[in-house]
Amino acid sequence: MSAVRTVVLAAVVVLAGCSGFFGETTETATPSETASGGVPPAETETAAATATPSPTQTPQGTVPETDSPSGDQRLAPGITRDGIVNPVELMSAHQRELLAAGYEINQTVVSTYNGSVSNRLVVHTTAGPGGEIAYQNGTSYGYDFDGNESVTGNAVWLNTTSMVTRHVKAGTTTYRVQPRLYPPESLIWYSGLQRDIQFAADEYEVTSVDRRDGVRVVTLEASIDRVAGDDIDDTTSTLRIDENGVIRDAETEVNYGTGNVYHTYYAVEQVGSEPPERPAWLDAVPPSASLDVGMDVFGFDETSVELVHTYGDAAPAGSIVTVVSNGTLYEATLDDPFRGDTLYLWVDADGELRATADRPDSTAARELGPVVTVTVRAPDGGELFSTSLGR
Predict the structure, then answer these.
(1) Could you say which DSSP state residue 344 is in?
(2) Rounded-to-integer distance, Cα 377 and Cα 227, Å
(3) How far apart are CA 274 and CA 375, in angstroms?
């Protein structure tokens, strides 16, 4: 099996104040497990087209501002000719402007390993005024050492009380419904943008002040020692901020050396947006997606798999357990709800999958392969648990 070298991305549920449902992206260019992305494959082409690759070219309609304020006069909230003088004021203004009118944001993260792209993540977010009704989706493209591509998608729909996620990987779609846990502003910030503004504010210098479509836009650039703490700058960052405090776009590149580079691009495509339409895939979400079921495998030997219910709701009676071993799929149905207990999964002499409270006698069970896949699905087909493991 080829190792996949990708950016490690936080799980869907890690939102709080960072970057929406993708969480805070870990900046690493070393090989790791497949990352999670956002758009289901059917939506991939649309999302990829909406992402702007780079802000390096000056947009049409931009001209230098000849009468901009000088000295310590304000160019934008928290910004003067001296740079970012009040990062909190700047971040508050950006957040306030977007939440007041609604917005559309595109975000792209590209990780390069040994000079080759190992992962590319594209995320698109739309929210209406107030940020309560929102839709965020994206796609992660991961590449292994042989150049083979894997595509993973996540999408999340949020209203005032709930959030529904859709995860698509290797042809399998899973859903989860849970109470909305995070405030509207959690979808605005992404991939260290707040951190750079707050903790590296002194490093930013104003490089130009222009008029874009009649609005002042300030460009700031910074070189930062982020990686090694050796007083050698390894990170470059560019911000373009309008007179209202909206961060029109932000681009950061972190160079780890030896061809390992982490590049992020963030762009506010629109200030002012109607609440997004309800996605059609919500109609396919099974009732079991609302269950919060915790299960894990605590042991796996030659004859059995130890499946443990660790927390939350019970797996309902009628749930289907499958084990794939040596290319053969075995299936059993739970007669009773499974909660707070342990089940030993094993294949008997007749080739039937058994789920018992006690470990089987080694003489009664067939030998399992060195790698197995265990899946538990609710009676309505919703996936409650799935893992692959070896011994």
Answers:
(1) E
(2) 44
(3) 40
Is the pLDDT higher at 4 or at 159? 159
Find, among 238, 243, 236, 247, the residue nearest to 210 by Cα. 243
* Contact between residue 65 and residue 243 where contact means Cβ atoms under 8 Å apart: no
Question: Measured between alpha carbons, how far is 263 from 181 in angstroms, rounded to an integer?
Answer: 29
In the prediction, which pLDDT does 196 show? 86
* Lateral strand order in the sheet of 328-333: 328-333, 320-325, 371-377, 383-390
* Span 113-136, pLDDT tens digits: 989 899 999 999 999 999 999 999
Question: Is the CB of residue 26 less than 8 Å from the CB of residue 117?
Answer: no
> Is the pLDDT reported for residue 56 higher than 70?
no
Architecture of the CATH domain 291-390: Sandwich (2.60)
CB atoms within 10 A of CB 236: 15
Q: Where are the domains of the chain?
A: 4-271, 291-390
